[in-house]
Amino acid sequence: MRWSIALLTLLLLSCATSSTPDLYCRGLHLEVPDRTSVPARAYLGILIKEADTDRGLCPQVTGLLRGGPAEISGIRKGDILISLDGFPVCEKRRGTPSRLRDLVRQTPPGSDVVIEVLRNGRPLSIPVTLRPLPIRKISIPALTESCPEGPSLLEEALRRNGKMETFQKVISELRVQSLVLHNPEWSDNPFQRSIFSRMIWYPLRAASSATSLTDRLRKATGPDSLFRQVAGMLDIRVEREDCERLTLSRLLSLMEDTSRNLEELLQVLTPDQRGFILRVLEKKDISAEDWNRLLNLSLRVDLRRLINEIYPLIGCFNRTSLEDLRKDILMRFGRPAEGILFEESTPYGTIIIAGEGPDTHRDDAFLIIDLGGDDLYLNNSGGSRPGMPLSVVIDYGGDDRYISREPFVQGAGVVGSGILVDLSGEDIFVSGPGSQGAGLLGVGILWNRGGKSVFISSWLSQAAGEAGTGILLSEDGDTLYRTGLYGQGLGLSGGIGVLVDRGGDDRYILGGVEPDFRDPEHSTVSMGQGFGRGVRPKDGYSGASGGVGVLIDESGDDLYSGDYFAQGGAYYYGVGILRDISGNDRYIGGRYTQGAGIHTAVGVMIDDRGRDSYYASYGVAQGMGHDHGVGLLMDLEGDDSFEGRILSQGACTDGSIGLLISASIKGVHLNKTEGCIGVRMQSP
To answer: Binning pLDDT at 50, 70 and 90, where does residue 14 land?
Structure first.
């Protein structure tokens, strides 16, 4: 049986005294059991699409889960399913609920059934034994409740309208979905992060969970402390160590140790396998065969060890240590006006120390330290390379230009680690894919402390993480971020992408490269701006949980422009968070955007202060949960405007929760729609 709930939650808040915990307690808090027994459930193990037949729209097999009941029984890709034990499974209208799914769920595991199929137009009857759905074994810690006694506005509304049982069943179903294995042959789900499990088990706390997480990230003063927080999001703990006084000798020693350790760690991959990974990650589209191979290769790399190997070096990337390094270099070389002060080839790559004048860096390097000047970088600029798993650039000043059409540059760790630090100046960054703070089976960090800056990249850039972590920290000035596809705080499978911008009137432009198949003439895929994306198993693609994507902007009147899949959204077991702290902001999106949780995912969008406008040209947006997803949009202060289309502003579909919490919309009433609950609330 299907259960759905949409909570169109419109709270009139007293902003001078309200906080997220107060909002949660007064508006949303409900006593939800900390533990839910997971009932045994049958599954068939097929991927389907709708096929037109003379019997209606029937499920056609597009893929089979390895080792599943359907594959074992002899069902094949391309088969059209007609009935299960004599019960028809075809539908009359597109987009209607799946009879096949309901029949399978209602059948006890271990049951023998007969499935009628059409194969090349010929009817066949195939006996199938339905096996139990593979369930992941995890422990979700109980949350300590701190709210005062008494019902919240949501609880009162649900009880008044007889919907409490429906709500409890939605929560139970979300928890079951969070435990499902995407690949039955796995004994666990190596890509699913605990932050996703906690948020989907306690969806009404999504706002407070996201606020707490982003507050910790905001407190980070440099890559060292930010990296520690991001490692925690990967469920990896690194021990905090105070960096010794950083000198050139100390830095080189740390880099050599790190490079040697990374190379040893990566010996699990042959040179051909590493080359394959680089070739695949450079593509916009990945075939099923290449994706499955990439997935399996990524599991060979010990991410926990990789994070701990790189941390001693990153732990020295803070303002104090880098100033100590500068003083040490000046003491060694004096205060030169310009030119290359030192250059040496080493087994790890070239080391270059440049003076305060303008320089052009053309060749890839293991380490570049540039003391100032308006410099031009035409090289890897802190991007790892085959044979050079670590690369670092530290530029102390000047209006610099980092220009490259190559992939994996400018703070990119791809099967390795790359770090780019620019400590002042108005800079321009232009790159190919997989760049500008991209960690792809590795760690990539870009720290920009300059003024007005421009970041332009083709795709998979600007804080993108897959089986690794990508970080972009930008601290001052009006900034333009532009990426064609995938980026600006994107967490792919097994990865974390975090973009933090401290201030300025910024523009985030994402999309325009890849047409979306739903409306290819008018829409493109964005996939970013605080977005977590997984891969649903289909057409030969192995499924994998999404990662965690975070975008935080602390101040300024900002513009966010995306299209499909953007702005605090998530897809398939991912978590996406966009939080803007202050400023009069504009959010422009298309579909699956602005706090949308799509296919068992959690999307959260929070704007703390300012007069803001939200526009979704298609919809499925603005606090929308779709197919066992959790979507939340919360705007805490300001005279705001919201415009959306279909399934917007606290909407939902099958088994989901959608929340819109706003200070600017007044009114209290309950909208009843089929299969969903729409609740508008106003605080007393």
So the answer is: very low
Cβ pair 671, 643 in contact under 8 A? no
- How many C-beta atoms lie closer than 10 Å to residue 65's C-beta? 22
Whether the Cβ atoms of residue 412 and residue 429 lie closer than 8 Å to each other = no
pLDDT tens-digit readout, 254-279? 999 999 999 999 999 999 999 999 99
307 alpha-carbon distance from chain centroid: 19
Task: List, for residues 620-646, the tens digit of each pLDDT value.
Answer: 999 999 989 999 999 988 888 999 999
CA distance 81 to 374: 66
- Lowest-confidence range among 37-41, 499-503, 544-548? 37-41
Question: Which three-class secondary structure state does DSSP give residue 393?
Answer: strand
For the chain, the C-alpha Rg in angstroms (whole number) is 26
Give me the domains of the chain, ranges plus CATH numbers: 42-132 (2.30.42.10)
Q: What is residue 64's predicted lDDT score, i.e. its pLDDT?
A: 80
How long is the chain? Answer: 684
Q: Number of C-alpha atoms within 13 angstroms, CB side, residue 659? A: 26
Q: Which residue has the tokens 């050139």?
A: 248
In this structure, are strands 569-571 and 531-533 parallel, antiparallel, or unpaired? parallel
Task: Write the burial class of residue 146 (CB in 10 Å: 0-12 exposed, 13-18 middle, 19+ buried).
Answer: exposed
> Phi and psi at residue 223, in whole multiples of 5°?
-60, -30
Q: Helix, strand or coil for residue 477?
A: coil
